Amino acid sequence: MASNDMVEIRWHGRGGQGAKTACLLLADVAALEGKFVQGFPEYGPERMGAPITAFNRISEKRCSIHSNIYDPDYVVVVDESLLDSVDVTGGLKEGGAIIINTPSSPQEMRPRLQGWAGKVCTIDARCISEKFLGKNLPNTPMLAAVVKVSGVLETGRFLTDIEESFKHKFAAKPQVIEGNMATLKKSMEEVQVG
Amino acid sequence: MIYAKDINERTPWQDLTPGGEIYEPGTARAFDTGTWRTNTPVFHVEACKHCMLCVPFCPDSAIPVKDGKRLDFDYMHCKGCGICENVCPFPAITMVTGGVAK
Amino acid sequence: MSNRLSGNEAVAYAMKQINPDVMGAFPITPSTEIPEYFAQYVADGEVNTEYVTVESEHSSMSVCIAAQAAGARTVSATSSCGLALMYELLYVAASCRLPIVLACVNRALSGPININNDYSDSMGARDSGWIQIYAENNQEAYDNFLMAMPIGETPEVRLPVMSCMDGFITSHAVENIELLDTDTVRKFIGEYHPENYLLKRENPLAVGPYDVSAYYMEHKVLEAEAMKVAKSRILEVAAEFERISGRHYGLLEEYRMEDARLALVIIGSSAGTAKAAVDKLREDGVKAGLVKIRVFRPFPGEELARALAGTRAVAVMDKSEGFSANGGPLFAETRSALYDLQERPYLIDIVYGLGGRDVKTEDIEKVFGRLTDIAVTGEVGPVYTHMGQRSKEDNA
């Protein structure tokens, strides 16, 4: 149960793909922009490849609710193969959207979404990250895609703020900042909405 | 500051130290364990060569030494274990029955 | 200054601002990040703390005890089985009256082995003589940790403080937080100058002597009296803290209790979730409220009785089992606290959230639904129940 001015996002990924990191990064940047945020993973034994979930609440006032998110506004699927094993659209609000990391189009993905009739967005995060970061790090492009699709943060300001955050985070290896920024921008351009 | 000598089994809780802390070293000195004795060593000064073997063997540090000579027993702390008599190479220590000195 | 940190980051940052003399810690999920971040501060020279790496929690608490007895300001962090391994030393720390501050990141105590949140670890240590303060969120975890030393180090108190937060739910969730500047923190905490310490030249200290029965009772009475004094000291420190932070804290927090007829008694992050449920019920005209227990030791019994005096039905929410077959530990305390009221509300105990079982606002609303029925019919039904477990009745 969330108030109307709150956006709730649920991330589905696999251990090691950085869904939690992206979730915390989104919280970080949203907080920089004066929002009240929560970013938290659902923890279990840490196992590479096992399905994991992470959550964001972003709103104009502090949220005291500390449960997981069952009725999200947006769902981010960092690994397409999760569609076969996890009920990713469970509880997803009608007016919301699901954003999937896949080379396929929204039209191609819809039949795999258990009758989900709302907005479907796709982005080939693997391809983008391999091009700009040199390896499969899908979380950064997925972060950009969810910001773009949800409108929870203004995209221009988001890019400025996350660059600041990267400068802090990657102080020891500034060479990766450029690639990450290019990844984010490319992802925002390429995300398909269907 | 409360000193150990001022604390005994009649002291009310308000006057005890937090956690039973003791604010000075060597408080065993004030503890009369001589009353625990059931046998008592007797020191024969004329037979003593002051070899000092008894001194480190005494578990209760009850054999005082001054100017290289051992003195008579510290009966406030001697528990009468008899180790001193056992290690003494001379007939300088004998044990007698009973807890009183001499 | 505004920031956003996880609960673990917030507590590690509080430790950095305090700059304690000694930290003795051994990593255990979900508190591992606290010694991890703090070790980084030590390595970077941002604090001049002596960080003692040890081979177990039994040793980490032993290090803390020895260092605190030597006059050092000492901190540690642990969870679950780590706290259990400290168990013997928790009593030693408290009975030696050493105001160590321990960040306890609450996690279910095995078994079955589980890494998620409930209070079975710290509730097991509730009678060890430690002050226990529980946080609802990262802000409170930070604030409570800062308040712990001024409380524990007070000469009339001299008790160790366990500053608790919910494992993962609070420890690993990034939320907004207001941090104090380090100068303000240092001024608030002050220097630690215990009157006596091990190697004090004028009068070296003996700590933890064997206590024969002629003295043991008296020393325990002293400890018990100190815990009573702690209650007022916690409030004084909270008032001082409010002056520097603007944030108000009490022994407990009453949420919409002014005219509440139905109420919860609850601890930690679930109190936040329950507040949202209370707000919703209030919109629907239900006179709902809740009391969040912030300080569990010393237990604010009189204050709780006053807060609940006007209610008709109350649910105590226990996030740990006591296996008493008579309700959880919070229930036992609450029922005891209410005994002296002229008119007592109906009281039920609900054990929930064990091993990280999530609790939603809807779950809390259902609890209030039960309280509504009890208030109307006067029939309490089963007093001690569990919530959130799968059950055959679910499908009936």
SSE arrangement:
The complex is a heterotrimer of chains A (194), B (102) and C (396).
Chain A: E1 7-14, H1 19-32, E2 36-42, E3 51-59, E4 74-77, E5 97-101, H2 106-109, E6 119-123, H3 125-133, H4 139-150, H5 155-169, H6 175-190, E7 192-193
Parallel strand pairs in A: 1-4, 4-5, 5-6
Antiparallel strand pairs in A: 1-3, 2-3, 6-7
Chain B: E1 39-43, H1 54-57, E2 65-66, E3 69-70, H2 83-87, E4 93-97
Antiparallel strand pairs in B: 1-4, 2-3
Chain C: E1 2-5, H1 7-18, E2 22-25, H2 33-43, E3 50-53, H3 57-69, E4 74-78, H4 80-85, H5 87-95, E5 101-106, H6 120-124, E6 131-134, H7 138-152, E7 161-166, E8 174-178, H8 182-189, H9 213-245, E9 252-255, E10 262-266, H10 269-283, E11 288-293, E12 295-297, H11 301-308, E13 313-318, H12 329-338, E14 346-351, H13 361-377, E15 384-386
Parallel strand pairs in C: 2-3, 2-4, 4-5, 5-7, 6-7, 10-11, 10-13, 13-14, 14-15
Antiparallel strand pairs in C: 1-8, 6-12, 9-11
Helix pairs in contact in C: 1-2, 1-7, 3-5, 7-9, 10-13, 11-12
Please provide a written account of the structure.
- The complex is a heterotrimer of chains A (194), B (102) and C (396).
- Chain A is an alpha/beta fold.
- Chain A has 6 helices and 7 strands.
- Chain A has one domain: Pyruvate-ferredoxin Oxidoreductase, domain 3, CATH 3.40.920.10.
- Chain A is 36% helix and 21% strand.
- In chain A, a hairpin with an 8-residue loop joins strand 2 and strand 3.
- In chain A, helix 1 crosses helix 5.
- The two termini of chain A are 27 Å apart.
- In chain B, the strands form 2 sheets. A two-stranded antiparallel sheet of chain B has the order 1-4.
- The relative contact order of chain B is 0.24.
- The model of chain B has no long low-confidence stretch (mean pLDDT 93).
- Chain C has 396 residues and is α/β, with parallel strands linked by helices.
- Chain C folds into 2 domains: 244 residues, 3-Layer(aba) Sandwich (Rossmann fold); 144 residues, Rossmann fold, CATH 3.40.50.
- Helix content of chain C is 41%, strand content 18%.
- Chain C is globular and about 70 Å long.
- The termini of chain C are far apart.
- In chain C, 55% of the residues are buried.
- The model of chain C has no long low-confidence stretch (mean pLDDT 97).
- Chains in contact: A-C, B-C.
- At the A-C interface, helix 1 and strand 2 of A face strand 1, strand 8 and helix 10 of C.
- Strand 2 of chain A pairs antiparallel with strand 8 of chain C, so a sheet runs across the interface.
